[in-house]
Write a structure and sequence with these properties.
Length: 702
């Protein structure tokens, strides 16, 4: 029987299926495309099963259709979750590597549970006297599936919200309706799962709501596809948990409202009107979200306050505080540019904001960040490399922001190609060369003002102020990178000098041995000495390599339960073998600690050897070792009565590589010891006085 509900469900099945086919032929290869196609096709199949269930009369056939419905419905949330992890994200591969396997295994388990308990999914059903449609009661497994679906759908909503909050400007404009469409599909299934769990049944009368939601979501997604392709947006989100996300609150509020309406309508015996009320509630929430995400509404409110309450358009003090808070901890130029373009787009109501980084020394320009362009699009817009030096030279003569749509100079043609207009009714495009320290460090391009609002004089003043701040920040980051590069080169040169020096001495030893070998080779004593010399040379080379390797790589710890007293006693026995010096030890009652014994032995051996070498030259000098517990940490201290450490060396050079007071030292031992101790979560400290000795204390967590 062709009822209005059947026609609506049929349309809700055809619309997502057609949309999936359109996306399959239109979009480029990308995980987002395939996840969306599968999600839409599954949604279309569910609507088709719902429509068929309304006209099929035999109970066995309806039960079979509904079992397939429950089985496929358990898979849909997994694809929405995968879509939420990849949609509009430039670092989607990181998310897939971290969560893809978990999601795939979870989806297969859900499918396997439904197949395993196929006959028990819907134990029995009955005809509703009010609607004349079948109502099937859920099993416990069906209820568990509903709970899992609700959790997955809420997580998917949270991920979509994170993506929307991270987008600004034209990227936000492109994806806004897509996320609203995805959210509509998710809310429809969330409603169905919550209702099934609330009443522990599947009521065919509720399928009307799912049909309306499917049509609404498909329409919103179609609007988004008209604005741009799925791959036109690249956002980079961190993997940190969402602390201030409002999605959970909205989902809980929605479920609370649905549950409250169900109880009220049940009390007044008005179940027939409930799907209609739920549809009205969904549409009202969509309208509210639409207005809340409207950039035009936010801009109009800001202008209203500025005009009628005598407030300046830009509150420079608040803006600078917010900008400083966003960028103070950023040390990467790309992250710094992303934070600035997002801030400018939000503050000036822009769809398009881009920062180009200029390397004047090499005559190179690259995209720092943009709310409009992806990295691939920016690369395609780049002018020929031979034009860049002349263009950079022109930028040196312009220090203020200019409207490139009203300027007739020929040099702005390149800028027009770099900042394509997204909206035909845009209010012009503005360019700001970024000067700092006598260099051109970048270029700021702005355009596509929301609602076609023209740039006013106060806007140009604001752009100039922000441009100066942005240029200073980019120059600071560039200079910091140069200083770090110089330090790395100096460290490499220093390491090379030490390596060459030691290898030169080793080569000289081997050279002398080779010169004497033809004359004294028949002498057994010479051969024995030669073998010992070769062994020492090999050991010397291996020792140099081992010490230099510790400067480049962090120690890899293999922690085991260790008796610290026993470890130190072994080290003391090894380093003092054959020495007339004495070691006085005070071994405290220590708990076992989880450390890497091999690495910690290096620390202890280095401290003991330093203490022996720092002594006044008397073999009878005493070295003291103490172990004890303080709070939640164990400590051991090595004290000598040697020459001590000069205050200037202690303040500037101690624990730094290649800084030493020894004639034959490399200045690596204490630096390596500090790396090892800090890798254990500990700390190494020193107390010293010139002429009175030094005490090195190592503190480790229990």
């Amino acid at each position: 029987m062709m009822t209005p509900a059947f026609c609506l469900l049929s349309l809700a099945s055809l619309f997502p299926a057609g949309l999936a086919i359109f996306i399959a032929f239109r979009e480029d290869r990308h995980p987002t495309k395939y996840f969306l196609i599968v999600a839409l096709l599954l949604t279309a199949v569910l609507a088709g099963l719902e429509a068929a269930s309304l006209i099929v009369l035999p109970l066995e056939a309806v039960v079979r259709l509904q079992r397939w419905h429950v089985t496929l419905a358990s898979l849909v949330p997994w694809f929405w979750l995968l879509l939420s992890l990849t949609f509009a994200r430039g670092n989607y591969l990181d998310y897939l590597r971290r969560w893809g396997l978990i999601v795939a295994v979870g989806g297969l388990i859900s499918l396997a549970l439904c197949i395993w308990n196929w006959n028990g999914l819907l134990p029995f059903g009955q005809l509703s006297p009010q609607t004349g449609l079948w109502v099937f009661f859920l099993s416990r497994l069906g209820a568990v599936q509903c709970v899992i679906q609700m959790l997955l759908l809420v997580v998917g909503l949270m991920q979509f919200e994170r993506t929307l909050r991270a987008a600004t400007g034209a990227m936000r404009w492109r994806i806004k309706f897509a996320i609203l469409g995805f959210g509509t599909f998710i809310l429809a299934q969330l409603y169905s799962a919550s209702e099934s769990l609330l009443y522990m049944n599947l009521d065919l009368a509720r399928y009307t709501f799912a049909a309306v939601a499917s049509l609404a979501g498909s329409s919103l997604l179609l609007v988004s596809l008209k604005r741009g392709r799925l791959r036109d947006t690249d956002l980079y989100l961190s993997h940190k948990a969402i602390i201030r996300s409002i999605t959970v609150l909205l989902a809980g509020l929605y479920l609370l409202l649905v549950g409250g309406l169900a109880q009220v309508l049940t009390r007044f015996e008005q179940e027939l009107n409930f799907p209609l009320v739920a549809v009205a509630l969904l549409l009202a929430m969509l309208a509210l979200a639409w207005f809340a995400l409207s950039d035009r509404l936010r801009q109009s409110l800001r202008r209203l306050v500025s005009r009628h309450f005598r407030r300046p358009v830009y509150d420079y003090r608040a803006i600078w505080e917010a900008l400083t808070a966003r960028t103070a901890s950023l040390v990467d130029p790309i992250s710094y540019c992303r934070a600035n373009v997002k801030f400018l787009a939000e503050t000036m109501d822009l769809h398009s904001a881009s920062i180009w980084i200029i390397d004047e020394q090499h005559g190179d320009i690259s995209l720092g960040a943009s709310t409009t362009l992806t990295a691939a699009q920016a690369l395609a817009l780049m002018p020929p490399r031979n034009q860049l030096p002349d263009f950079i030279e022109v930028l040196r003569t312009h220090t203020r922001s200019v409207n490139i749509d009203t300027t007739t100079d020929s040099w702005v043609d390149i800028l027009k190609a770099w900042s394509p207009e997204v909206f035909k009714q845009g209010a012009g495009r503005v360019c700001m060369p970024l000067h700092a320290g006598g260099e051109v460090v970048g270029l700021l391009t702005l355009g596509d003002r929301i609602n076609g609002e023209p740039f006013a004089p106060e806007d140009y003043d604001f752009i100039d102020a922000v441009g100066a701040q942005l240029a200073a920040g980019l120059l600071t980051l560039a200079l910091t990178a140069r200083v770090a590069d110089v330090h790395e080169r100096q460290a490499f040169e220093t390491m090379s000098a030490f390596l060459i020096h030691d290898l030169k001495n080793t080569a000289s030893t081997l050279g002398l041995m080779l010169q004497n070998m033809p004359v004294h080779f028949d002498d057994p004593a010479f051969r024995a000495d030669a073998l010992q010399a070769m062994s020492r040379c090999v050991a010397k080379i291996n020792d140099v390599i081992r010490r230099l390797m510790t400067l480049r790589f962090k120690p890899e710890l293999h922690r085991v339960e260790t008796d610290l007293n026993a470890l130190l006693q072994r080290v003391v026995a090894e380093v003092t073998a054959g020495s007339k010096g004495r070691v006085e030890a005070s071994w405290g009652d220590l708990p076992s600690v989880r450390v890497d014994p091999e690495e910690l032995q290096k620390v202890a051996a280095n401290l003991f050897l330093n203490a022996i070498e720092a002594s006044r030259g008397d073999d009878h000098d005493t070295i003291h070792v103490d172990t004890y517990v303080r709070g939640a940490r164990v400590l051991f201290a090595v004290r000598d009565h040697g020459c001590g450490i000069a205050p200037e060396f202690l303040e500037r050079c101690l624990f730094r590589p290649f800084k030493t007071t020894k004639k034959q030292g490399m200045g690596i031992g204490l630096y390596q010891s500090q790396l090892i101790v800090e890798a254990h979560g500990g700390k190494i400290s020193v107390e010293t006085a010139v002429g009175q000795g030094s005490t090195f204390t190592v503190s480790l967590p229990i």
